[in-house]
Amino acid sequence: MKKYRASAGYLLLAAALGVFVWYGLTHKQLWTTLGNLNAGIVILLISLYFVMLGVLVGQLRFIVELCGKKINLKDNLRISSYSQIVNFFGPLQSGPAVRAVYLKRNYKVPIRNFVAATVIYYLFYAAVSGIAAIAPSAYWRWLILLVPLGVFLCWLFYKIYIKFIYKEKPGAESGRKLGFKPLAYLLLVTIFQVVLQAIIYYVELKTANRAISLRQTFIYTGVANFALFVALTPGAIGIREAFLLFSTKLHHISPKSIVAASFIDRAVFITFLGILFVITVSLHFKDKLKIKKADLNLSSPEETVKNT
Question: I need a labelling partner for 300 at 20 to 30 A (CA). Which of 39, 93, 227, 274 fits?
Fold first, then answer.
């Protein structure tokens, strides 16, 4: 099954790249827009992506703390950097699986705890992204219903995690009592992550179309983030663009601007990953993390559970 899902992902990637090539060949104005991408903008975006890496380091720290453990900064930076590369180029967003295996082997973090704590993060990410998408739009009144619902679901899952997964009772597997502190910090890091994503998209959209507003950008960011949950292709290539194109009535950004901004984002992000790859290779991150080839063949934490 994993083989077929990976193949489907690569087929979707090939189709998405084909559409990108076709669009570039039939819309010559795209290259004029890309010509506005000067060195200063590229350096700014790459710098923002390095800030994002720092956010991901903070995110992993508090996810691990939700599992009752602590990860040192050096190991955190190594696994966060390495898994980000794997997450883009590996099949079906396999970065979380590599992190799960590493934490189990080196920090004795039970994989079920890591998966559940990661789900809490995803709930936060979905809630914050949903607010970003709806609050500045004409549908902001829906937040009156959706915000309490989101808070309730996050609270309910956290209680289920504490009672049935983490096992914080004396003498249980985890043994360390959890407070709300790592949960609160994880929420704050997630909010900062979405705001930082909006800043990155704002720079890219402004390069493509100077008329784009910050309000439109937050809606665009919120919608784009939901592509994470159905990302069958590396970096959700094609999936994120589809989400954005189908939601033009929400953010009112033209398809031309969406495609141009996506071209910029993909080009800069791959450049950032290239720099990160050189750093990880030169500093021997893979050897120090003791990552095996089999770890890279895992496509999800759930499959990791079956194989450990």
Answer: 274
Structure tokens belonging to residue 91: 């099949």
In three-state secondary structure terms, 143 is helix
Contact status, residue 66 vs residue 185, Cβ threshold 8 Å: no
Quote the CA–CA distance of 262 and 27 in Å, as a whole number.
Answer: 15
Q: Locate tokens 């039939």: which residue?
A: 26
Rg (CA), the chain: 20
Burial 30-53 (b: 16+ CB within 10 A, else e): beebeeebeeebeeebeebbeebe
The candidate with the shortest Cα–Cα distance to 64, out of 43, 53, 79, is 79
**φ, ψ dihedrals at 40, nearest 5°:** -60, -40
DSSP H or E segment with residue 34: helix 29-34
Dihedral pair phi/psi, residue 63, rounded to 5°: -65, -45
Q: How far apart are CA 90 and CA 235, in angstroms?
A: 10
pLDDT tens digits, one per residue of 35-88: 667 889 999 999 999 999 999 999 999 999 999 899 999 999 999 999 898 887
Quote the tokens at residue 70: 């602590």
Total-model pTM: 0.83
